[in-house]
Amino acid sequence: MVELKNKQASVSIDKGELVGYVVDGHEFIHQKGSPGWGSSDTEMFPIIGPVDQANFRVSTPKGDAIQDQHGLLRQFDYKLISQSETTAVFQKNYKAGTEIKNSKYPEKSTEPLMSWPYDFQFEKSYHLTETGLEVTFKITEETDMPFMLGYHPAFKLYSESPIIVANNKEITLDEVLAVGSRALQVPDCTSITLKDEKEITITTEGFGNFMCWTAVRNMVCIEPISFYPYAVEQVNLDQGFQEVGEESVFKVKLMPQVL
């Protein structure tokens, strides 16, 4: 477990996963073992969304890639590259064509293995500041690689009627629940505020959109995304791709009001 600390806050990171963010005694992150979801954060890469109706195939310029929901990145582990009192950097490296075991097989998938036809390096870094927690994603290696990126943090809820504010509009938890597994689309948005017992604002660079998901009332996932996957049929998911240059950088900042 990696721990980051300053005077106001502490951050707990388990193998690259944000499992705790406590500010002035208040825990903002959904805890594993609580109802709703077995994780607390993850990444969606190189695709976002399900592909079961597309025979678990996604079209790329190098041919079809075998993927499952939200891509293969989450299926292998981060390595800790560096750490200080307030920063930690994790990295994943992938060699084109490497087969990765699919944890959804056989219960939820017909594909035991996933693969991707491009090399990539994926870096996730945390930086605890006086105003919040910065999470930065850096994608490097092979140029012209198509991809989507989504960040999938889950926030612990305390009140019965929390409100999500996006683009000056209020979204209720009931509205998020009503959409179900597709997740509520929040297009053209770079900042969302979750108003609960305490407030936290999530600002982004590079993503451009959000989606919100939950199946319970004790947590909600507020997810920065580069593309909303349900905007197209699964067989056309490649329409949501963008391309890596030599390096692509995406940023998320969690800014609690309690600081």
From TrEMBL:
InterPro entries: Aldose_1/G6P_1-epimerase, Gal_mutarotase_sf_dom, GH-type_carb-bd. Its cofactor is Ca(2+). One of its GO terms (molecular function) is carbohydrate binding. One of its GO terms (biological process) is carbohydrate metabolic process. Keywords: Calcium. Monomer. This is Galactose mutarotase. It comes from Flagellimonas zhangzhouensis.
